[in-house]
């Protein structure tokens, strides 16, 4: 099928094309308590084709794509490709170039031991420090081997095999008839049993603490400390603001060579796109368009270095080369985690949902659990909400030198923010 | 015209029948779901246009389910060799054996579950559709959407974008067991616009509206009326200010009413959560959870929406369940396996993201019943509060009945009149029984919307619809 599609795309008479064959071999295990609810396996093969058509003498370039089933007949394939060629001709975007550098990185063809990874997850989740009052409610384990062949009309042909896993775990804590639950989703390449156990032990502690939590008092604008994966939402804002498409849409006023805020009273952040990151579920060196993913500074010491994005938007911005950024490191803190936990502050570790609006930087989250540090006393609190503007918090934002990896993001282990509003309920 | 059932699936039936019959010799229960759903997505933006034959419900594949050793196992695949079913059977058997071996090796205990019912059923349902997505004149559609985008841009000076999105799927599904052969096909369509502009402080503000329903791309014609209202909405968003946090009287439009239905007692009574002990609702069956004005239905039969199927992904016919009746929680919704474990009847709510995903209990149409009040009377009754419009997102909390809804905007009401002031965004939080218990008025009309998708936790995205009338209640806004 791959050869047939490649041949047909090459003869289609279009400006350019991309083709990806993805095979997913997956194992899944679903547990209620520690009893198996269901097990599943899958073996899925998909083809995605994208064609580019130039119109009006090259003034415009349009694109259209299709998911092609491996059971599609040759007649179906011909019709699908003709359809997307026609549709691409109707999509009149300003012309752009489809640069694609030769892929010099070695192919990754080592197969993934799905069974062994699944066994590691099952073993790790069976040996947690549970008690009669803090325990695992249920969990789901997903382990995939993805084999991806990427081809394009510039001659790129690259094969990469990589693992992608997830463990979704629900933790309960109980005091008498009062029971609460905490939700955790761990995405990774393979199973990091030690990290999984450590994070879930922390979750069990949070569960214990939430049972004795007091209503969050009215605090106005305390210093807020984040030390869980919720902080990834904060850091992703910096990646979004250097996204070429956002730049063209006017959704970011950040400019290459200029600082991200007029004055820094806190730490100056650096953001680096990574070519590879161990145990990320996105550890592939070539993106879907056939562009090589390289180590690259997007922001250095608070100053924007460059934007990133697809070939279309990179071309519009005049970037010589670009790619997707599947893995990223945020760093540049000058204090230790311990130093950032000095004085009065509210450390928030559980939200019902925590979001940062990538357009305006609005922060919103309903507080499930926090630790209020005031005058040397620590009070466990719950309820109320956190809101405010991340844009206004950036100049005074501080973050630790210590780092923590959450799947495809390496972020400071501790982040301290000023100027956000905590709406208490007491 | 009727949405025709997939010829591909009909041609695959002998293979499917053979696989099911062969496996039925070895396993107590066997089912096979095959899907062949085609459609499109078109996106028109000032900053990039795209077309694809793919959207969140397009798929072609198969999943076999068996009862083995007291538990259920599944194998999903999309490369059946119709000419050699023995090859597929060998792959299924091999996969099942390998997983069983791992479960033995890890000493995993089993959640013992009985065999699903396999009462004979022959069902063939082709629902009415207008234009089929695979037959749409794409040049005409792209032209219309481009013209609407241009119209929106020209109507709002300084707009950053007026992006249009359109999706339509012609769904065909076949469910086969030893005693069942069920086939269905239907078409749904949804479309929306998103307009963005900068306010005087340089902040990006967004206006968003959509259309959706059971039917073909002709539903997208409704976007014209939405776009004509976009300039006024954008003006309101640009002049909006942050809300002063506090508890207010609120009136929810049918979209926000639907969001509350979905987040409050949609997820809260998905009965696979009862099996896991994750839903407080299990303890409240027969008890009061809302005011007398609260009656809520759930089911694929409740509305001709984006999820109005004839049977679910486990072969259970679609239903219409009264979850809350005059404020009393009557029952939840249930997939077939959870129903078996709880000793209740399945309600036709077993849904998969696609054939390659597990079945969970999922919502279809979740709708509050209408009342008898007029919107004018409801507004006139408000001392100080907001009329809330525009769904952005919501978060369920079935265990603790907390609710969080992020809402696009609120129109301030003082002493029964709109002040002209608009707040945005609005984060509504609260305790579900308080929110529903404080419902004091409900309008006589109702609306049902089905744009976007719904996740279980943070994954498993499926189409749902929700709605109801205008409701008056109290909530904490921030």
Largest interface: A-B, 78 and 73 residues
Biggest β-sheet description of chain A: 9 strands, mixed
Using the alpha-carbon principal axes, give the shape of chain A: globular
Q: Radius of gyration of chain A, Cα only, in angstroms?
A: 24 Å
Instruction: Quote the average pLDDT of chain A.
Output: 94
Q: Average pLDDT across residues of chain B?
A: 95
Helix-strand category of chain A:
alpha+beta
Range of helix content of chain A = 10-25%
Number of DSSP E strands of chain A: 22
Give a verbal description of the structure:
The complex is a heterodimer of chains A (426) and B (478). Chain A is of the alpha+beta class. Chain A has two domains: 2-208, PmbA/TldD superfamily (PmbA/TldD fold, 2-Layer Sandwich); 212-233 and 335-402 and 412-423, no CATH class. Helices cover 20% and strands 40% of the residues of chain A. Chain A is built from nine helices and 22 strands. Chain A has helices at residues 2-10, 74-90, 114-126, 193-210, 231-240, 244-249, 311-316, 337-340, 390-393; strands at 16-32, 35-55, 60-68, 93-94, 134-152, 157-175, 178-188, 214-215, 224-226, 270-273, 296-300, 303-304, 328-331, 345-356, 362-374, 377-382, 385-389, 398-399, 403-406, 409-412, 415-417, 421-423. In chain A, helix 3 (114-126) runs parallel beside helix 4 (193-210). Chain B has two domains: 7-107 and 122-238, 2-Layer Sandwich (PmbA/TldD fold); 246-477, no CATH class. Classes of the chains: A alpha+beta (426), B alpha+beta (478). At the A-B interface, strand 1, strand 2, strand 3, helix 2 and helix 3 of A face strand 2, strand 4, helix 2, strand 5 and helix 3 of B.
């Amino acid at each position: 099928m791959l050869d047939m599609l490649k041949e047909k795309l090459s003869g289609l008479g279009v400006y350019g094309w991309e083709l990806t064959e993805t095979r997913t071999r997956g194992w899944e295990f679903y547990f209620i308590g520690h009893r198996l609810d269901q097990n599943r396996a899958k073996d899925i093969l998909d083809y995605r084709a994208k064609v580019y058509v130039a119109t009006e003498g090259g003034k415009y370039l349009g694109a259209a794509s299709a998911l092609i089933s491996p059971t599609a007949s040759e007649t179906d394939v011909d019709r699908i490709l003709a359809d997307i060629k026609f549709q691409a001709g109707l999509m009149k975007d300003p012309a752009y170039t489809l640069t694609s550098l030769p892929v010099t990185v070695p192919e990754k063809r080592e197969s993934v031991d799905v069974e062994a990874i699944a066994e590691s997850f099952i073993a790790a989740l069976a040996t947690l420090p549970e008690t009669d009052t803090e325990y695992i409610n249920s969990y789901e384990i997903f382990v995939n081997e993805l084999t991806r062949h990427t081809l394009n009309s510039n001659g790129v042909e690259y094969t990469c095999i990589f693992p992608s896993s997830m463990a979704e775990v629900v933790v309960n804590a109980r005091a008498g008839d009062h029971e609460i639950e905490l939700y955790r989703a761990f995405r990774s390449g393979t199973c990091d049993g030690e990290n999984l156990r450590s994070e879930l032990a922390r979750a069990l502690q949070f569960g214990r603490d939430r049972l004795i939590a007091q209503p969050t008092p009215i605090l106005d604008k305390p210093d807020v400390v984040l030390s869980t994966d919720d902080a990834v939402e904060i850091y992703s804002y910096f990646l979004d603001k250097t996204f070429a498409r956002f730049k063209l849409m006017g959704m970011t006023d950040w400019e290459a060579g200029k600082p991200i805020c007029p004055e820094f009273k806190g730490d100056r952040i650096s953001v680096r796109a990574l070519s590879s990151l161990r145990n990320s579920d996105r550890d592939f060196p070539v993106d879907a368009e056939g562009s090589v993913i390289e180590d690259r500074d997007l922001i250095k010491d608070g100053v924007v270095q460059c934007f990133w994005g697809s070939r279309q938007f990179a071309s519009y911005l005049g970037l010589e080369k670009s790619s997707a950024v599947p893995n990223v490191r945020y760093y540049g803190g000058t204090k230790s985690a311990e130093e950032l936990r000095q004085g009065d502050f509210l450390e928030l570790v559980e939200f019902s949902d925590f979001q940062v609006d990538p357009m305006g930087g609005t922060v919103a989250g309903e507080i499930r659990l926090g630790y209020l540090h005031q005058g040397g006393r620590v009070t466990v609190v719950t309820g109320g909400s956190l809101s405010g503007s991340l844009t206004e918090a950036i100049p005074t934002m501080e973050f630790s030198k210590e780092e923590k990896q959450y799947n495809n993001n390496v972020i400071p282990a501790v982040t301290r923010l000023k100027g956000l509003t905590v709406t208490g309920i007491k | 015209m009727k949405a025709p059932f997939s010829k591909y699936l009909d041609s695959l039936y002998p293979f499917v029948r053979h696989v099911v019959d062969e496996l039925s010799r070895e396993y107590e229960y066997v089912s096979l779901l095959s899907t062949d759903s085609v459609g499109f997505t078109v996106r028109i933006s000032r900053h990039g246009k795209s077309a694809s034959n793919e959207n969140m419900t397009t798929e072609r594949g198969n999943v076999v389910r068996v009862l083995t050793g007291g538990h259920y196992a599944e194998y999903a695949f999309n490369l059946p060799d119709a000419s050699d079913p023995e090859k597929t059977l060998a792959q299924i058997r091999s996969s099942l054996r390998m997983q069983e071996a791992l479960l033995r090796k890890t000493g995993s205990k089993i959640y013992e579950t009985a065999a699903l019912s396999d009462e004979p059923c022959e069902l063939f349902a082709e629902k009415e559709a207008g234009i089929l997505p695979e037959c749409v004149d794409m040049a005409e559609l792209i032209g219309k959407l481009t013209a609407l985008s241009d119209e929106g841009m020209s109507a709002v000076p300084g707009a950053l974008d007026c992006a249009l999105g359109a999706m339509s799927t012609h769904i065909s599904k076949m469910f086969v067991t030893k005693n069942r052969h069920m086939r269905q096909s239907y078409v749904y369509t949804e479309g929306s616009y998103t307009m963005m502009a900068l306010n005087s402080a340089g902040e990006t503000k967004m206006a968003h509206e959509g259309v959706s329903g059971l039917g073909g791309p002709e539903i997208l014609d409704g976007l014209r009326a939405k776009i004509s209202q976009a300039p006024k909405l954008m003006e309101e968003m640009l002049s909006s200010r942050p809300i002063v946090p506090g508890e207010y009287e609120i009136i929810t439009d049918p979209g926000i009413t639907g969001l509350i239905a979905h987040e409050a007692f949609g997820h809260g009574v998905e009965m696979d959560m009862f099996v896991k002990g994750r839903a407080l609702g299990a303890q409240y069956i027969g008890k009061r959870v809302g005011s007398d004005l609260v009656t809520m239905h759930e089911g694929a039969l409740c509305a001709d929406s984006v999820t109005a199927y004839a049977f679910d992904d486990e072969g259970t016919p679609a239903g219409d369940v009264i979850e809350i009746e005059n404020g009393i929680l009557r029952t939840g919704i249930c997939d077939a396996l959870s129903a078996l474990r709880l000793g209740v009847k399945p309600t036709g709510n077993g849904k998969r993201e696609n054939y390659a995903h597990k079945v969970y209990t999922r919502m279809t149409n979740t709708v509050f019943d209408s009342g008898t009040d007029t919107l004018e009377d409801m507004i006139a009754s408000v001392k100080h509060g907001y009329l809330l419009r525009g769904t952005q997102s919501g978060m369920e909390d079935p265990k603790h009945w907390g609710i969080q809804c992020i809402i696009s905007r609120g129109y301030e009401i003082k002493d029964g009149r709109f002040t002209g002031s608009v707040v945005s965004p609005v984060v509504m939080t609260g305790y579900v029984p308080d929110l529903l218990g404080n419902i004091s008025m409900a309008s006589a009309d109702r609306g049902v919307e089905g744009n976007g998708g719904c996740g279980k936790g943070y994954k498993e995205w499926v189409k749902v619809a929700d709605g109801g009338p205008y409701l008056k209640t109290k909530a904490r806004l921030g």
